[in-house]
Amino acid sequence: MIGNDIVDLDLASKESNWKRKGFLKKIFTINEQKLIASTEFPDVMVWNLWSRKEAAYKIYNRETGIRGFFPSQLECVYQNAILGSVLIKGRCYFTQSTIKNNTIYTIAVANKEHFRRIKSINPSIEILKKNGIPFIIDSNSMLEKPISITHHGKYWKGIQLID
Amino acid sequence: MNKEQTIAELKNIVKPYIANQEAFDTLTEDTDFINDLKINSANLVDVILDIEEKYDIIIDNEAMERMINVKAALEIIETKLSEKM
User: Fold this and answer.
1) Is the pLDDT of residue A31 over 70?
2) CA A7 from chain center: how many Å?
3) Using a CB-CB distance cutoff of 8 angstroms, which residues of chain B are in contact with residue A68?
4) Which chain B residue is nearest to residue A20, measuring alpha carbons?
5) Do the Cβ atoms of A68 and B68 come within 8 Å?
6) Which residues form the Carrier domain (chain B) (predicted)?
7) Which DSSP letter does residue A82 get?
8) What is the complex's ipTM, to 2 decimals?
9) Rounded to whole angstroms, how far apart are CA atoms A42 and B12?
């Protein structure tokens, strides 16, 4: 299982005012709030953690079929700006984040070994959906392959797990 | 609580965050905030905070978890308002 999420930092700064009263408390755990308060670049930390939660949620949603809005229950274990994991209800997902060109992009996997098997998908490929979950038909095997897609502002990313 | 009135108030609250005007114009109880109105999930927090401010209620984590469509929002507003009485 895989999940991904991209944040366009310019757009996020226009769309969301994370300094709004109550905002951080609804999304982040006490430890995450401390992390945000103690960094030199809180904007980047807010959206870095957010993109990890979103990417991990996509896996959780697929594994459990549970859909809902519970960002503070997806708890980030922050190793550094790139690596970390997200814990939810006894499950653990691993995340790799990239900060570049004013975007933060996170890939989450249920199994660490899977980071090596992630492949980008061509945006022009036909994407189908089942219960809101995207997949493609592999052109060689004609089998359904689950994918994860994300877009924000002018950015789009799609990934699949290769065998 | 008058349901029609609350739906109208809710429409006013979500309006700044929607990205699908057609779904907004034809909004019903079954309208989904994310799938239909295409509200960005970070803005769902704003919707929740705006609802809290408008009705002077507190939406706890348990309620927030369900806050993904109009129907759930109406139920939560109604429950939290009745708890205030």
Assistant:
1) yes
2) 9
3) 65-66, 68
4) B46
5) yes
6) 1-81
7) S
8) 0.92
9) 31
> Does the distance separating the beta carbons of B68 and A26 come in below 8 Å?
no
Which residues fall within 8 angstroms of residue B57, CB to CB, at 6 or more apart? Answer: B51, B77, B80, B81, B84
Q: Please list every residue in chain B whose beta carbon sits closer than 8 Å to the beta carbon of residue A15.
A: 40, 42-43
Record: contact B46-A20, CB cut-off 8 A: yes
Q: Which residue of A has its CA nearest to B69?
A: A68
* B39 in Cβ contact with B10 (< 8 Å): no
Identify the pLDDT of residue B76: 97
For the record, the structure tokens of A67 come out as 């859909």
Q: What is the pLDDT of residues B43-68, one digit of tens each?
A: 999 999 999 999 999 999 999 999 99
Q: Where are the beta strands (DSSP E) in chain B?
A: none
How far is residue B65's CA from residue A68's CA, in Å, rounded to a whole number?
5
Q: For residue B44, give the H/E element and its range.
A: helix B41-55
Write the single-letter amino acid at B79: T
